[in-house]
Write a structure and sequence with these properties.
about 160 residues, mainly alpha, about 55% helix
Length: about 160
Amino acid sequence: MDKQHHILIDELVKLLRGGSAHASLKDALKDLPAELRGERPNNLPYSIWQLVEHIRITQWDMLEFSRDPNHQSPKWPDEYWPKEAAPADETAWKNTIQQIDLDLENFINLLKKDDIYQELPHGDGQSILREALQLADHTSYHISEIIIIRRLLNAWK
């Protein structure tokens, strides 16, 4: 790999992990009281739990699509959003956060070993680069929603 390619990969990794120009997911969830995870303030259609679980499902789908030509995506939109407003328990919450972290690291590993420009043979124009940019964009969009909900709940710094 040439120097420019290394620079691009490093910048993509920073973008995916967040925190450079905006809050990371970890920042957005830090010190969130457990009892607020399922709150839907001001008649919003989703809770922080639903956003976090949606991030997990979508990220998993993009990862699997990128590495498995036989992957079947969930049905949009029903299977990308949890019905429950709150996690079943602390274990469910922790498992979701851990899965987000694990899947993100697995996606970052794809960036480091695959030709990020090559179109995926099972897609319709997608590449690892395109999926990385979409993943970062999608996650940062929903992180901002989490922060807005926290502000509405008076639970943000």
